UniProtKB/TrEMBL annotation:
This is Phage portal protein. It comes from Chitinophaga lutea. PROSITE patterns: VOC. SUPFAM superfamilies: Glyoxalase/Bleomycin resistance protein/Dihydroxybiphenyl dioxygenase. InterPro entries: Glyas_Bleomycin-R_OHBP_Dase, Glyas_Fos-R_dOase_dom, VOC_core. Residues 6-117 form the VOC domain.
Amino acid sequence: MIRFKKLDHVAIMIPVGKKDEARTFYGGTLQLKEIPGNHPRGAIWYEIADIQLHLVEEEGDAKISGRHPAFEVTGLEAAKAYLQSKGIEIAYSSKITGRERLFFRDPFNNRIELLEFE
């Protein structure tokens, strides 16, 4: 069983080399507050309502995208065991201080992240 708490963030992809344009739009036009830091994959993070929006550079011809929603859960290890018991492959990514996380793909190749704050 997975005990979902809330949507934590949504990651969307931007073309490589377009960070300045992304900042102009999301930080300038939409007036979102940027979250400073050295984020995984050089991502730009913004606060948007009570979640975060992560912008990540990705080549336009990527066969499997890194786009994903991330859900905060209670009991990440139990969620991992549950997913594995259903034959779902678990993947990991870079470490982020203060949280544990894992990734998996649905039957349609959509990436999904589960995370738990330490």
